[in-house]
Amino acid sequence: MADSATSASRPAGAPPTIRDVAEMAGVATSTVSRALSNPGRVNRVTRERIEEAAAALNYVPSSQARGLSSGRTNAIAVLVPDVTNPFYFDIIRGTQNQLKAAGYTQLLVDTEESAEMEADTLRKMQRTADGFILAASRLTDAQLADAASSQAIVAINRSSANAPAVVIDTPGAVVQALEHLSSLGHSKICFVGGPASSWSNATRWKTFEEASQERGLTTFRVGPFAPKTTSGAAAADAAARTGATACIVFNDLIAIGMLQRLRERGIRVPEDMSIVGCDDIFGADFCNPPLTTISSPIEQAGRVAVSMLLAQLDPLQAASTRRLAVMPTHLTVRASTGPVA
Amino acid sequence: MADSATSASRPAGAPPTIRDVAEMAGVATSTVSRALSNPGRVNRVTRERIEEAAAALNYVPSSQARGLSSGRTNAIAVLVPDVTNPFYFDIIRGTQNQLKAAGYTQLLVDTEESAEMEADTLRKMQRTADGFILAASRLTDAQLADAASSQAIVAINRSSANAPAVVIDTPGAVVQALEHLSSLGHSKICFVGGPASSWSNATRWKTFEEASQERGLTTFRVGPFAPKTTSGAAAADAAARTGATACIVFNDLIAIGMLQRLRERGIRVPEDMSIVGCDDIFGADFCNPPLTTISSPIEQAGRVAVSMLLAQLDPLQAASTRRLAVMPTHLTVRASTGPVA
DNA sequence: CAACTTTTGGCAATCGCTTGCCGCCCGGTT
DNA sequence: AACCGGGCGGCAAGCGATTGCCAAAAGTTG
Fold this sequence. Notes:
The structure is a homodimer. Chain A is of the alpha/beta class. In chain A, about 40% of the residues lie in helices and about 15% in strands. Chain A has helices at about 20-25, 30-35, 45-55, 65-70, 85-100, 115-125, 140-150, 170-185, 200-215, 230-240, 250-265, 300-315, and strands at about 75-80, 105-110, 130-135, 150-155, 165-170, 190, 220, 245-250, 275-280, 290-295, 325, 330. In chain A, the strands form two sheets. The first copy, chain A, has a six-stranded parallel sheet, sandwiched between helices. A six-stranded mixed sheet of chain A has the order 7-6-8-9-10-12, sandwiched between helices. In chain A, helix 5 (about 85-100) links the parallel strand 1 (about 75-80) and strand 2 (about 105-110). The interface of A and B includes residues 13, 100, 110 and 128 of A. Strand 2 of chain A pairs antiparallel with strand 2 (about 105-110) of chain B. Chain A binds a DNA duplex through helix 2 and helix 4.
């Protein structure tokens, strides 16, 4: 009863390796490897034997080792400027879902709104991740081009000829918002700006300005403000003194902050001032008053970004890959906008 | 001018390896390895030469390869039941910060409130991560013990003798909340329960019940409800028909949902019904009315969890490591609670 | 100055897996 | 009967680091 002693090698504590499986199944490690990751390459009965052995040993291949020899890591890094911001939460949720479905691991990195940190992460993780999703990248066009040339990248809300991107068509809805306000009788409208380095901010402003002009509206602009509710106070004060009767705000975070400040100051929303946010983040529907805002399929954007990235990684599809996906948006009217007094 | 041709080997596109650095610095790869990760072991001038070469080549060690030979991955997996939930957002933020500071990568996994998925992830990633942070683990005591015995683990809000944990002392503040309500004249109080499998839910209810009894209050209990705002409607309806004049709600998400529903039904908060939430998540301060809630240092809990985990990983400290950290909480009174009518 | 210690750097084995290449076995052709 | 090609497995060479062990060099000591 002692002649199956061959496998006495594995030190009890350590997880089983491919060799243990091979030994148990009576084949070479290469066969195990193939059976597990390239099933067609191996005879069915052999494969089944191997699968049984693997199951019996509770074998889990080491992603490290696999990565070392294959060159792939099966991990995607998602870089966001600020994990704190609900907008990115939704993106993270989207990428997380899709990545998991595809068997990838998500590496989450907070770049703290810093282009430098972003570039640095991109460099440091070049070997750690198979690809990168850059949410609201702060990189310059040149940096982006540079990065995209050496690794798989998809940007979200940062369009550039140099890298595949998915952009949320907030500008499209800015026009809608403007019309909404205009139809309520507003003619003096203020744009409350977000971070200066933000591409979205720039495009939103641009659209806002052009569309306003076409419609003969008077525009003001205040900012930039950091995308946090706490910036709302300053933003509200600045907007109020422009004399505008309505604001389109860079994002819901700032807008929600403004709502509070305006209430404190006795400026009624929407009677004295209408407010339109952007993004429709968590909270926009239950703040006081509920916020009229530009609803964005943020989570979906995250998912699409993952799909594009994965396609880019797949040699079969790499060529035919879309370079740009535009996500539709729409205006959601709630209680923070109303007719001009 | 042609005798430094030795290094012609590296195929332009590929990132430099330790060998390229060694070659350029004129030393063996082992020396490079040591210079970079164990500076004291190498002569200063040699080290500097190596550092220069590394910088010149823009060398980044492959974490894969490093992991393979050293056994460490420098990554920590953070498992949360639901990335969507703002509560976990704060945890993620906390862990993210602290991990980055310590030079670790964060692997974020959404276990979808499933114990099975959690156990599975733990198994699959045993080699991928050096340790795990389990936020609000759904695992049974046995599973948890099992997992903790074979890998480094810290649980958040899931205490058990079997694994190190950081728990947020919400129960402590539940008593405070009860006193607050009692002092406002409430005597019929309803506990709105969260997920049945949640340890926090169990402890909150237990404390609630005991403390109520001591104070001679009449208690009701409704639930379980999923921790989402959308559960609020059902929760509100259920709570309303108990006849209670105040609720302590499992978490802010449900509480915020209730707020909306109660308003729709014309039940005024706090005049007809007082509401106390738990967690003080993003949004609790700007919902309508602003929510009285039990404020928790969530982000800090995440940070502490990381510290404990890292200490556990460090052979020097492993022994002296704390097994339990309790984070203090306090009641934040806003506008959703008031005197009984 | 011999005998010892330290320092410092190199050699080579490993880590666990993938993959190119080779060879064996078999049934089918000519 | 000799030949062929496909299917299936094994061999062994890496992938890019780390690390135990060893030896040369440098520094100490009595």
